[in-house]
C-alpha cells in the first residue's frame, strides 16, 4: 500500500510538472512556484539527513579507534559551524564567515593548488607516446596547453586557431555525443519513474 | 636525502620556477580571443542602467582563478553604469560574491540598493533557477543582509528574468548548464559565463548552438578582458604563473618521452 501511495504521488507530480511547462495560465504558474518552494524545503531536509549520517559514521569509527584525530576534527567542524551560524548568523563579518574566509577557503585553495604538483609529476611519469592514439592525445594536450599560455602564439602564430579546431571539432563532437546520450537517458529514465516502471528509488522489487 | 624520489624533484622544480617568475615584472602580450571579445561587446553595448544578474556559482577552492574573472566582469558592468543583482547558487560562493561586489561597487562609487543588490544564497540550484523565472521576490524575499526585497529601488521593477538583460554565471563547475537548461530554455534569459579553463570544453557545444551567448575562460580570459577594460585585476599576473607551469609540464612530458624512447631503443638493440 505504501509503495502504491508513493508511486501515485510520483505519477501525479510528474504529470503536473510536465503539463504546467506548456501553460502560462496564472494557476499553472502559481502551482509551479509552490512546488519549487517545497522542493527547496525538502532539499534542506535531505542535507540534515546527510549531516546525521556523517556524524553517526564518524562516531562509530572513533569508537573503533580508526583515524581518531582526523575524525574528531571533522566532528568539531561539523558541530562548530552550525553553532556559530545559529548564534551569530551567516552574514558577512560574522564569526561563521570569518571561519569560512580565513580557514576553509585558504585550506581548499591550498589543496586545489597541490593538483599542479601532482599533474607535473604525473606528466613526467605517465604521459608517454606508447601508441599512435596515445601520441595523438599527447600532441593535442601539448597544443591546448600552449594555446592557454601566453607564449603559444610566439612559438607558432596559428597556435590558437589549431587549438580552437581541436576544441570545436574532435572534442566537441565527442562531447555532443555524450550530451545527447545523457539527454536521451534522462528522458527515458524520467518516463520510467513517472510511469512506475522504474521502482529502484522505492528500494527495489516489484 | 636518500628518500627523495624523482617526483619530489619535479615538485621542487615547479615551486622554484613559479617562485622565480613571480619575482620578475614581465608584461605579457596576450591577444584577445573572439569569445572574450563577444562577452565584452555584449556588456559594452547594453544601455546604461541595464539590469544584469551575476551568479556566483563556485567554491572557494577555485578562488585564485575565479576571482580575476569575477572582478573584470563586475568592473566592466559597473563602469558602464549597469545595475547588478548578485546571487549565489553554491553556498561557498555567497560571501565571496558579496565581497567582490562590495569592493568593485566602492571603486566606482556605486550605491547599494540603487546600483546593486546582493540577494545571497538559495539552496537547490535547479529549483532556485526555475523559481526566479516565476518570481525573484518570492524566491528571495530578503537580500543577503536580511532587508526586504521591496525596500530597494533597483528591485522595484524586477520581478523575473523578463526584467533582466542577462545572467552571468561565474562558475568552476557545470552549474551553468542548469542556467541554460532551466533559465535559458524555459524562461528565455540570456546566459553568459565566466568559468575556470578546465570547464571550457564542457560548454563549447552550448556556445556553438547559441544556448550560451559567450564566455570568459580561465586566467587567460581574465587577462584578455583586463586588456579590453584597461584595468589590472591579477589575471595577467596569474597568467605568468600559469604559463610557467604549462611550460614546465610540457618540458617534463618531453623529457619523460625522451627517456622512454631511449630506453626502448636500448632494450631493442640489446
Q: Please give the count of helices of chain A.
A: 7
Task: Give the helix level of chain B as a range of percent.
Answer: 40-55%
List SSEs of chain A in N-to-C order: HHHHHHH
What does the oligomeric state look like here? heterodimer
Spatial extent as radius of gyration of chain A: 26 Å
Secondary-structure-derived class of chain A:
mainly alpha
Radius of gyration of chain B: 22 Å
Assign the CATH class of chain B: Alpha Beta
Beta-strand percentage range of chain B: 5-15%
Low-confidence stretches of chain B: none
CATH architecture of chain B: 3-Layer(aba) Sandwich
Features:
heterodimer, A: 206 residues, mainly alpha, B: alpha/beta, Rossmann fold, six-stranded parallel beta sheet, elongated
What can you tell me about this protein's structure?
The complex is a heterodimer of chains A (about 210) and B (about 270). Chain A is built from seven helices and no strands. Chain A has a domain of about 70 residues. Chain A is mainly α and about 210 residues long. In chain A, helix 2 crosses helix 3. The radius of gyration of chain A is 26 Å and the shape is extended. The model of chain A has no long low-confidence stretch (mean pLDDT about 90). Chain B is an alpha/beta fold and about 270 residues long. Chain B has a single domain, classed as 3-Layer(aba) Sandwich (Rossmann fold). Helices cover about 55% and strands about 10% of the residues of chain B. In chain B, strands 3-2-1-4-5-6 form a six-stranded parallel β-sheet, sandwiched between helices. In chain B, helix 9 packs antiparallel against helix 10. The longest helix of chain B has about 35 residues. The radius of gyration of chain B is 22 Å and the shape is elongated. The two termini of chain B are about 35 Å apart.
Amino acid at each position: 500500500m505504501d509503495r502504491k501511495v508513493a508511486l501515485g504521488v510520483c505519477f501525479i507530480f510528474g504529470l503536473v510538472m510536465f503539463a504546467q511547462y506548456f501553460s502560462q495560465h496564472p494557476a499553472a504558474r502559481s502551482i509551479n512556484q509552490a512546488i519549487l518552494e517545497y522542493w527547496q524545503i525538502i532539499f534542506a531536509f535531505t542535507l540534515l539527513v546527510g549531516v546525521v549520517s556523517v556524524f553517526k559514521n564518524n562516531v562509530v569509527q572513533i569508537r573503533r579507534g580508526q583515524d581518531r584525530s582526523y575524525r574528531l576534527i571533522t566532528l568539531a567542524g561539523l558541530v562548530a559551524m552550525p553553532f556559530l551560524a545559529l548564534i551569530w548568523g551567516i552574514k558577512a563579518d560574522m564569526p561563521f564567515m570569518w571561519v569560512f574566509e580565513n580557514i576553509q577557503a585558504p585550506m581548499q585553495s591550498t589543496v586545489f593548488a597541490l593538483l599542479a604538483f601532482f599533474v607535473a609529476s604525473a606528466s613526467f611519469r605517465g604521459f608517454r607516446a606508447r601508441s599512435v592514439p596515445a601520441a595523438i592525445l599527447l600532441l593535442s594536450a601539448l597544443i591546448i596547453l600552449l594555446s592557454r599560455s601566453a607564449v603559444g602564439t610566439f612559438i607558432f602564430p596559428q597556435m590558437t586557431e589549431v587549438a580552437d579546431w581541436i576544441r570545436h571539432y574532435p572534442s566537441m563532437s565527442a562531447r555532443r555525443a555524450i550530451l545527447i546520450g545523457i539527454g536521451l537517458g534522462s528522458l527515458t529514465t524520467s518516463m520510467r519513474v513517472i510511469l512506475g516502471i522504474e521502482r529502484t528509488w522505492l528500494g527495489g522489487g516489484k | 636525502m636518500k628518500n627523495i624520489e624523482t617526483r619530489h624533484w619535479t615538485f621542487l622544480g615547479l615551486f622554484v620556477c613559479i617562485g622565480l617568475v613571480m619575482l620578475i615584472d614581465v608584461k605579457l602580450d596576450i591577444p584577445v580571443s573572439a569569445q572574450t571579445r563577444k562577452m565584452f561587446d555584449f556588456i559594452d553595448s547594453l544601455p546604461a542602467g541595464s539590469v544584469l544578474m551575476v551568479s556566483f556559482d563556485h567554491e572557494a577552492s577555485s578562488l585564485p582563478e575565479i576571482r580575476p574573472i569575477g572582478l573584470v566582469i563586475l568592473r566592466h558592468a559597473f563602469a558602464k553604469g549597469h545595475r547588478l543583482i548578485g546571487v549565489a547558487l553554491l553556498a561557498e560562493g555567497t560571501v565571496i560574491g558579496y565581497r567582490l561586489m562590495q569592493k568593485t561597487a566602492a571603486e566606482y562609487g556605486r550605491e547599494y540598493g540603487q546600483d546593486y543588490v546582493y540577494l545571497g544564497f538559495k539552496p537547490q540550484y535547479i529549483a532556485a533557477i526555475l523559481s526566479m523565472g516565476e518570481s525573484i521576490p518570492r524566491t528571495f524575499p530578503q537580500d543577503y543582509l536580511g532587508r526586504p526585497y521591496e525596500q530597494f529601488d533597483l528591485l522595484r521593477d524586477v520581478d523575473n528574468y523578463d526584467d533582466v538583460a542577462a545572467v552571468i554565471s561565474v562558475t568552476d563547475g557545470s552549474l551553468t548548464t542548469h542556467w541554460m537548461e532551466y533559465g535559458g530554455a524555459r524562461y528565455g534569459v540570456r546566459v553568459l559565463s565566466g568559468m575556470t579553463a578546465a570547464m571550457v570544453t564542457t560548454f563549447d557545444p552550448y556556445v556553438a548552438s547559441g544556448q550560451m551567448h559567450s564566455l570568459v575562460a580561465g586566467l587567460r580570459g581574465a587577462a584578455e578582458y583586463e586588456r579590453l577594460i584597461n584595468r589590472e585585476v591579477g589575471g595577467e599576473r596569474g597568467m605568468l604563473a600559469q604559463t610557467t607551469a604549462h611550460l614546465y609540464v610540457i618540458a617534463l612530458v618531453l623529457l619523460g618521452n625522451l627517456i622512454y624512447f631511449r630506453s626502448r631503443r636500448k632494450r631493442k638493440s640489446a
